[in-house]
Write a structure and sequence with these properties.
alpha/beta, six-stranded parallel beta sheet, globular
Length: about 375
């Protein structure tokens, strides 16, 4: 670090502070990371169905060594203690959700850990110095001992949240805030106090976050889930009503629960055949936010109904959005949601914690949908 010839003492002290803030003393050149070992020996003439059947399963996940990422412009390097496991991770493993150009090729979109290096152009502020504990929305590479993340996507860890819970917050909280409350979302508007929302998959990581956030922000949340136990969990999280979609018609039940008025928004991670049903439960000028396609990527809808009731169907993924949008979400969460976490109004339920070497088991649990809340990977001791 060059500070100029014969600098005054205050400049020397500032340079030393900057140097100690920018780099931890012992960052290894290699790190452990979970990678997908693909074994695709399909002949060039293999049909698309045959290729789909041979997509990498959970057992394709293995721990290996890779170069530790260099901290870039505007980034911090985090020594990862915990990484959250999310549905997009499964899709990336399957080759259905490739990382955008320039992003880490490895799986993992949320981490918690300790800052060990700070790149150029990162402002001096609490939480962004070497030694600080942070959680962060990653652009990839979370299933690794070290992860470089844009500084604007880092958040401090509330005092009542441990490192395991912290690693399970960013992806779901960013996604829910963006789709329900951020003005820059696909609809160009946010929900307001008193609006109603139906959350499919109410006990998933997204669902459990959305129910709590919606209730805490003054919305009326409803949820669907696949068992009596899961419906009870949705009610505990704050849902006004929870519908077992395996035994009840959620369209009919929602019409009863809203006295025929319908809903302002459906947060949908199912898509496929659900789209037509979702349209039926919307109020006039209602919206559907599609954030997943567990039920299939193709749907049918009535354009006449769409036009007559001025309905809107929008879809989004957060990963490809630019860093400025994500930084704004982080700022909003810090302002509006962090105080609620600190007061205990919003919590993080971690269903199961796996070691890094058990990433395959974590993905198996995710694909089974047996969990309630989040799934986490223990990467290293904080």
């Amino acid at each position: 670090l060059f500070c100029g010839p014969s600098p005054p003492m205050h400049a020397l002290l500032r340079c030393r502070r900057l140097a100690s803030r920018r780099l931890f003393s012992s960052i290894p050149s290699k790190m452990r990371v979970v990678e997908v070992k693909q074994q695709n020996n399909d002949p060039p003439t293999a049909t698309p169905d045959a290729q789909r059947r041979r997509r990498p399963g959970p057992d394709s996940l293995h721990v290996t060594e890779a170069p530790t990422p260099e901290v870039g412009e505007g980034e911090v390097l985090v020594k990862v203690a915990t990484a959250g496991v999310n549905r997009p991770d499964v899709l990336q493993r399957l080759g259905l959700y490739p990382p955008p150009p320039g992003h880490s090729p490895y799986i993992g979109l949320e981490v918690a850990g300790t800052v060990v290096a700070v790149g150029p152009s990162v402002p001096e502020s609490p939480g962004l110095s070497v030694g600080d504990s942070v959680m962060a929305l990653a652009n990839g590479g979370g299933y690794a001992e070290y992860c470089a993340v844009p500084h604007g996507q880092c958040l401090d860890i509330p005092s009542n949240i441990d490192m395991i819970q912290a690693g399970c917050i960013p992806e779901t909280f960013f996604t829910v805030w963006h789709n329900l409350f951020q003005q820059q979302n696909v609809f160009g508007t946010s929900l307001k106090k008193g609006d109603s929302v139906l959350i499919h998959g109410g006990t998933s990581g997204i669902g459990s976050t959305a129910i709590q956030m919606a209730k805490s922000m003054g919305l009326t949340p409803y949820a669907t889930a696949g068992s009596t136990k899961k419906c009870e969990a949705c009610l505990e999280l704050g849902a006004v009503a929870a519908i077992n979609y395996k035994t009840e018609d959620f369209v009919m039940r929602m019409k009863e629960l809203t006295n025929g008025k319908g809903l302002n928004l459906v947060l949908d991670m199912v898509a496929g055949p659900y789209l037509t049903k979702n349209l039926q439960v919307l109020a006039t000028e209602g919206r559907i936010a599609v954030i997943g396609s567990l039920g299939g990527v193709h749907s049918e809808l009535s354009m006449r109904d769409l036009m007559r009731r001025r309905l809107t169907v929008g879809g989004s993924t957060l990963r490809a959005r630019d860093n400025a949008i994500k930084a704004k979400i982080a700022s909003d969460l810090k302002e509006h949601i962090w105080p609620m976490i600190e007061k205990g109004q919003i919590s993080v339920r971690v269903d199961t914690m796996f070691d890094m070497e058990e990433a395959a088991e974590a993905h198996r649990l995710m694909e089974s949908s047996r969990h309630i809340g989040k799934i986490a990977l223990r990467i290293s001791k904080p």
